[in-house]
Each structure stands twice: as C-alpha cells, then as structure tokens.
Amino acid sequence: MGKDKTELMQNEQYRAWLKDVKQKIRQTQLKAAVSVNTVLLQFYWELGAEIVEKQKSAEWGSGFLSQLSKDLMTEFPEMRGFSEANLSYIRRWFLFYNQRLDNFGTGCAEIAKQDIAKLFQIPWGHNRVIISKCQNTKEALFYVQKTLEHNWSRNILTHQMESRLFERKGKTVSNFSKTLPSPQSDLAQQTLKDPYIFDFLALTEDYKERELQKALLDHITKFLLELGAGFAYMGKQVPLQVGQRDFFIDLLFYHTVLHCYVVIELKTGDFEPEHAGKLNFYIKAVDEQYRKKGDEPTIGILLCKSRDKLVAEYALSDIHKPIGVSEYQLTRSLPENLKSSLPSIEEFEAVLSREMGDI
Question: How many angstroms separate the Cα of 3 from the Cα of each of 54, 65, 67, 137, 180?
C-alpha cells in the first residue's frame, strides 16, 4: 500500500490531473456563492466521471482515492466533502446512474440528461441515501422526483423509502378509470397506496374500528404523512342526514391536489362487497351535501385489514362512484398477560452491563 502511494505521488500524470481538479474546485467555490447545491453536485458528477475514467486508464495503484482525499483536504482544508468515504460515494453515485445512460439508445439520451439534471436539485445527503437504499434507477428517480415535488427532509425521505413507498404507490384496487375523467383518474390512482403502513400504532389483536380511528387521529401528523401530500383533515364521525336517518363518516378529508373530498372508512376485518355499497352511499351524500362549485367528484377509500383482490374488483365493477380498496398494516402490541412475563428494557440493560463487566 505504501509503495502504491509513493508511486502515485511521483506520477507526473497524476500530478497534472490533480492540478486540473484543484483548478475546477476553485472555480466551483466562486460559482457556489450563486448556486451552492447545483454547482457543487455538478462538480461531484464530473469528478465521479473522471475518477471512474482514471481508474480504468491509469495505473495509479489501490491507494488512489486515499491519496486524492489527502491531497484535496490539504489544499482545501475549509471545504468538506473530500474524505475518502465521500469520494467513494461520489464515484458510486456516478456509476449508479451512468449504467442507466449506457443502456439507453441514442434516441433516449435527452431523457437521461433531464433525469440527471434533477439529481443536482436535491441535497447531496439525499442523493447518498437514495443510491444506498434503491435497487435500480427507476426506483431512485422516483424518490428524486418525490423529493422535488414535496420538499422532503432527509428524515422523511428515509422514512418513505423504508416504508417501500415506491412499491406501494398506485397499487390500490379501484374503479377510478371508469368513474373519473382522465387525467383525474390517473392522478387519483397514483395518490393511493396498497398497503398503507401504520407502523406508528401498536394495538392489541382485538381492537375495534373506533380504537383504530382514535389511534390514527392521536398520531395525525404521522397519519397524514402516510396518506401522502395533499390530504387536509376535515373531521371524524362526520354526520350525514339522509331522509329521517343520521349516518356518520369515519374520516373526512379534502385533497388539495385532486380538489375533492375524500371519504375514508376503516374496517378491522376482511373486505366484504357490502362495504363498497355503503361507501358508495356515503360518497353520494357528500357530493350532495358538501361538494361545492369547482370541486371534483368525491372519492372513497376503504381501508381493510385484508382483502381479496378479485372480490374487490368484482364489488367495484358496477359501482358508479370512485372507490379505492387498500389494506393496512400496523404494529401489534403485546397482550397485557404477556407483558409481565417478559423482561423490561431496564432489565435487559442490567443483564448486558453485568455480562460486559465480566469480559
């Protein structure tokens, strides 16, 4: 390793290239006052491309990135981002998307450039998270686009990725294509997920629908985050009077992007065809009693513990109001009779401390 570094420092080709990189960094520093993130990431992209190319064509040894890191940090001690680990990420970032560019035909080159330009519009930390957790560029660019659309923080981006948003988006069984005009139907379909993951809740096995409703509203911020951007909470057990009878909607929202009311009904059991009929009735009532001029048709969402896809498709096929059926998942809390028989966190820590003291 030591010999590799010595040879690298003495290599005239490397010194010439290093001088060029330093000059680009100085130019980047000047431009950064105008557009910090975009200019920096454009430089990272070019640096990643050069690192990949030099590692292919030049015999600079295995200590190349380590030596480059030391040289750049010595020259620019005030700048962060030149650690060996970050240079490795820069190289990996370029390769992750460059493989996609290689697979495109010449007719698709412009599309690829537009996609790559989006990478420079989100922070470097977001880019690192995305390439660390995504399996392919389609998934990665999905999260890049959503970050741009919703201005996600890195924590929210990480949460959305860990909850598999890419896999769940647009997967709801619905009749939107038949009951809503285009492009409203496509937008509504992409707005919903399947399943919804309420991993911030812990309920016992025999919870009731009212308990689920209360738990969701007790965690309304996390609930809205899981529902997605655009949902505005209007109320729970919202009254509807039809004829001489009173009915109550579990949850009512208004969607600021779809410009429509959204009725959500919660079911703690399996989906049954009669659920769709009742929700159809509620949607009709909301359209008549709440919908105003400029509002799009009301949408209904049935959130069920489980559902048979074919049964749901059959049930929705002759329904004339837009309805989506999705499953939900949540964390199970331990029954009370088991809690007392399991050690607490404090007890675990005490045992670990004693064991560590014996080592």
Answer: 19, 15, 12, 38, 69
